[in-house]
From TrEMBL:
Gene3D superfamilies membership: Anti-sigma factor, zinc-finger domain, Jelly Rolls
Pfam families found in the cross-reference section: Cupin_7
SUPFAM superfamilies: RmlC-like cupins (SSF51182)
Segments forming domain ChrR-like cupin: 99-190
UniProt name for this protein: Anti-ECFsigma factor, ChrR
Cross-referenced InterPro entries: Anti-sigma_ChrR, Anti_sigma_zinc_sf, ChrR-like_cupin_dom, RmlC-like_jellyroll, RmlC_Cupin_sf
Endpoints of the signal sequence: none
Length: 212
């Protein structure tokens, strides 16, 4: 069960088609497991369709915008339903193989990475897969920009809680954490970064000039 969701503003941008392809992929993967966020997006899609049927120029005040977000956030949780979207096939179509069989490159300690930015031509963000071995720890770090992450397999924990499969998290330069893989399988995530991470450990920070 997913416990960490995209903010309403992100869902609104997704519904409007304003997100970059990698960011939209992260939300799409989350929606496949989360009936609550699917319901919110359905509401936004319906609202958008109604507005399109009206006059070409529709003025939306800031108060109306805030009201829409409040209604979406306060909407009752829908009942769980059968999932129909093939999450695994979406990933396999993109990656060409199962995520556990990819040519991972060991980065630091328990962390391996695979940069897949080239699969999103024309995008400015860096798109990377990250694997943290079961029970392993990632180096303490913060972010020079915004990092959007979805958990594809396993789970990790940090000071904000436990993030399970298909959980969604956005981190900024105000967040510093040291993820630990929990459970019996490797934790694999898909992250979209607007800038490289910044290591903050006593010794690892010396490696920052080599991180791209």
């Amino acid at each position: 069960m997913t416990r960490h969701h995209p903010e309403s503003l992100h869902l609104m941008e997704f519904s409007a088609g304003n997100l970059s392809e990698p960011h939209a992929l992260c939300i799409r993967l989350h929606l496949n497991d989360c009936s609550l966020c699917r319901s919110r997006v359905d509401t936004l899609d319906s609202l958008g369709a109604v507005m399109m049927e009206r006059q070409p120029k529709v003025s939306v005040s800031e108060s109306m915008f805030d009201s829409i977000l409040a209604k979406i956030d306060n909407a009752p949780s829908p009942q769980p339903e059968t999932k129909t979207a093939p999450r695994i096939s979406i990933l396999q179509k993109l990656l060409g193989d199962d995520i556990n069989n990819l040519p991972w490159k060991r980065q630091l300690g328990d962390v391996s990475v695979l940069d897949i930015t080239e699969k999103f031509p024309g995008q400015e963000e860096q798109v990377v897969l990250q694997k943290l071995v079961s029970g392993g720890k990632a180096p303490a770090h913060t972010h020079r920009g915004i990092e959007t992450t979805i958990v594809l397999q396993g789970a990790f924990a940090d000071q904000k809680g436990v993030f399970n499969q298909w959980d969604f998290v956005v981190l900024t330069d105000q967040d510093e954490h040291k993820p630990v893989a929990v459970g019996c399988e490797d934790c694999i995530t898909l992250s979209v970064l607007s800038a490289p991470v910044k290591l903050t450990g006593t010794f690892t920070r010396m490696l920052n000039p080599f991180i791209k």
